[in-house]
Design the sequence.
């Protein structure tokens, strides 16, 4: 059976690896080399105008990943998707043109298939919020306008995946934005982006990802390398189009032999402090091995111990990758250490020994 790993780094929680502009891509590339299939989500693979063609990586939006982990949806591989593009009516004309040119570049340079773009009939009205934990989220004032645009692309243009570009507020908290650009804060946009893609995936059951539209920021000579991918141009759209171009389709009904089910996932890798998500809780009820990574700190404090989860604990992604290599080879990772406890005989109710059970 193909060895399958899922890599999850939740968005908008300030993950020290994966909380910035595609800075988890090296982790994804390394894990992909250990397995036959890597299932991960846009927050891991999106790097604004930077991306990497990982041939065995499946680009699965977060809400769809939750439904897959719950066993509600299967994943069906595709050779390519026809991508519909939605632009928020609130985007200024010049910035609209920049995004249309990015889409044309993806068609001409990368050979991707896109429909004509659709403007929402009302401004989406994105607002940004921050929770007490420091995690970010957001709201959309006119969600029906977004859904009407998506419905039109699906019905009239035959779109099999949806890319959304929404105008985001410029009045982002300056201290939070500065922290993020310097590699020590939470992405102020990420939570609202997840709301947009979740809405379309939940409603239509097709792949979706989002790119924010923003004015270029002033030059900052002290920019963190982890945030630098977002400073390269006028749009974050290229990585979204590349990811959606081969994103697997969601299957809620009758399955085919090629469809992937949640029980085919051998291991899931997650930051140790972010174990409370729906996908992890679903997989914790199966034979899938959960591997937590302590070094990838977040604003959350939802640990395996707090939830009573049985996991393998890795200090770093390097250690987690070693566990995956051992797991694929059929080797208990404990055998690679000097700390192997002897097998114990269990006692029965009469105080007598009985053979240990496996």
Sequence:
């Amino acid at each position: 059976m193909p060895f399958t790993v899922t890599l999850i780094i939740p968005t908008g929680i300030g993950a020290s690896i994966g909380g910035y502009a595609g800075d988890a891509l090296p982790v994804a590339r390394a894990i992909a080399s250990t397995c036959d299939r890597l299932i991960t989500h846009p927050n891991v693979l999106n790097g604004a105008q930077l991306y990497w063609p990982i041939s065995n990586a499946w680009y699965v939006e977060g809400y769809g990943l939750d439904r897959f982990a719950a066993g509600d949806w299967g994943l069906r591989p595709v050779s390519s998707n026809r991508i519909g593009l939605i632009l928020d009516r609130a985007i200024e004309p010049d910035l609209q043109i920049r995004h249309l040119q990015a889409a044309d570049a993806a068609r001409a340079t990368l050979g991707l298939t896109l429909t004509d773009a659709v403007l929402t009939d009302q401004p989406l009205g994105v607002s940004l919020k921050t929770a007490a934990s420091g995690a970010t989220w957001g709201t959309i004032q006119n969600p029906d306008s977004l859904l009407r645009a998506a419905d039109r692309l699906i019905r009239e243009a035959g779109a099999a995946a949806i890319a959304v570009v929404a105008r985001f507020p410029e009045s982002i908290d300056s201290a939070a934005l500065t922290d993020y650009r310097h590699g020590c804060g939470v992405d102020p946009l990420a939570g609202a982006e997840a709301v947009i893609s979740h809405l379309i995936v939940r409603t239509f059951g097709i792949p979706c990802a989002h790119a924010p539209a923003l004015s270029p920021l002033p030059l900052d000579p002290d920019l963190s390398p982890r945030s630098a991918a977002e400073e390269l141009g006028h749009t974050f759209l290229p990585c979204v189009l590349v990811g959606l171009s081969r994103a697997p389709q969601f299957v809620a009904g009758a399955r085919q032999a090629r469809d992937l089910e949640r029980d085919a996932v051998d291991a899931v890798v997650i930051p140790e402090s972010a174990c409370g998500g729906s996908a992890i809780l679903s997989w914790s009820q199966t034979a899938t091995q959960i591997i937590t990574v302590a070094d990838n700190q977040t604003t959350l404090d939802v640990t395996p111990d707090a939830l009573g989860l049985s996991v393998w604990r890795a200090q770093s992604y390097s250690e987690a990758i070693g566990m995956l290599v051992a797991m694929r080879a059929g080797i208990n990772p404990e055998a690679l250490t000097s700390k192997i406890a002897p097998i114990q005989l269990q006692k029965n109710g009469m105080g007598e020994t009985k053979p240990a059970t496996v």
